[in-house]
Amino acid sequence: ANDLLVIYGPRLFEFHIEIYDRWGKRIFQTDDQKDYWDGTFHDKLLPSQTFVYILTGETVLGEKIKIEGNVTILK
Length: 75
Known about the structure:
Blueprint: E1 5-6, E2 14-20, E3 26-30, E4 36-37, E5 40-41, E6 44-45, E7 49-58, E8 64-73
Antiparallel strand pairs: 1-4, 2-3, 2-7, 5-6, 7-8
């Protein structure tokens, strides 16, 4: 099962990800690329719905990145 949102890829010099619910409430954030989101908020599993993520960072070559997308919890 896919129970975790994990960011794979080359290590970034700077890294930040935020996840928001459909009402714009931030439910997860981290600056550690090794962290993951397990579909919870305040240690409670969230119901099925779609969330928005915004990933920003900088590569070791100095290239700034910003990636936005959706992730959906299905039960």
